[in-house]
Amino acid sequence: MAEKENCIRVTRAMKRRAEAAAVVEQTPTKKRVVLGELPYLQNAAVSANEGSAVEPQKQKCRNRTRTRTRAKKALPIPEAAPPTAQEVDTAPLDPQMCEPYARDIYEYLHKLEVDPNRRPLPDYLAKVQKDITANMRGVLVDWLVEVAEEYKLLSDTLYLTVSYVDRFLSLNSLNRKMLQLLGVSSMLIASKYEEITPPHVEELCYITDNTYTKEEVCKMEADILKSLNFDLGNPTIKTILRRFNRVADESNKDPGLHFEFLGYYLAELSLLDYNCVKFLPSLVAASVIFLARFIIQPKMHPWTSSLQQYSGYKPSELRECVLIIHDLYLGRRGGSLQAIREKYKRHKFKCVAVMPSPPEIPPYYLEDLVE
């Protein structure tokens, strides 16, 4: 009797409910949404409910809502006007760019770049040096580019290295046999300033084919630091170029890595030529932006009122520097120095070194803008 009382009586209705539950259990589970499918997450959620028993009126309402949403997405978005110089600094694009302090930071950097104690003499080869020529300096810089590539150093390290070399040569007469020693010792200091893991002294001795000893490198390092009065954190072309790129990207019709890498290529080419030593880093950076825009879009004027306001330079002020860098780009200057050219022929840098350029810049491009 007790067993009969505990038995559950199976009815036809219970059989139907059990069969329905079995069908639900056999339905395949929905595929997990991956990152690339996130834009369709909303539609996936709607399709998951289509199999459920939804009332016709609610389903119609959902369809109307989806239709309205699609209609809203189809509306054209009005193009925003290019931001002004002030708006670029204050736009919250990247917290690490320190937008609230950007203008103050770059005003301070401009004061540093015009400080005569932090600048090389524009004619130090004629006034100070007796045994070193502009060609020797170019060969040294070209070799330093290869060293930086060998040890995977930052480009900021390279710019600081060349800056230290020029400043030291502005203060001290040097024998040509010691020029390579000056180069590796300057790179050692710049690496300690910029890199997380700078190369060891022994590695730099090895890269010179052990021409110099560890003691000689350390001795030259101390001499450089004393001559520079330990003022090592100078603004370089790369420092200023990062800021100018942001304004140039806003006015470019086709901004991208080609423009950015082309600017870096032109900036490094300027390091090869002794005639660029006299220019401020900000003027070289502005000239690089001017020339990069011209190479990419030669039929469009490369300078704008926004770039002029932001950089503080008129096209006429950039004329001499632009023409020098353009000659470097075409190989009419420093054609035998190939390290930078080979570096930027690689796919890593979008092969910008082989981009064609008109042989001449129209003279009216280098005239002041008419407001």
Shape: globular
From the 3D structure, determine the CATH topology of the domain at 237-366.
Answer: Cyclin A, domain 1
Instruction: Flag low-confidence runs.
Output: 1-7, 27-56, 67-83
Quantity of strands, as a count: 0
Strand content: under 5%
Protein name: B-like cyclin
Subunit structure: Interacts with the CDC2 protein kinase to form a serine/threonine kinase holoenzyme complex also known as maturation promoting factor (MPF). The cyclin subunit imparts substrate specificity to the complex.
Family: Belongs to the cyclin family. Cyclin AB subfamily.
Biased composition (Basic residues): 59-71
Protein architecture, described:
- This protein is mainly α.
- Among the domains are: 120-227, Cyclin-like (Cyclin A, domain 1); 237-366, Cyclin-like (Cyclin A, domain 1, Orthogonal Bundle), CATH 1.10.472.10.
- Helices cover 59% and strands 0% of the residues.
- It is built from 18 helices and no strands.
- The protein has helices at 2-6, 12-26, 41-48, 56-74, 85-90, 99-113, 124-127, 134-150, 155-171, 179-194, 201-207, 214-227, 237-251, 257-272, 281-296, 305-311, 315-330, 339-343.
- Helix 8 (134-150) crosses helix 10 (179-194), helix 9 (155-171) crosses helix 10 (179-194) and helix 14 (257-272) packs across helix 17 (315-330).
- The longest helix is centred in the first third of the chain and has 19 residues, at 56-74.
- The termini are far apart.
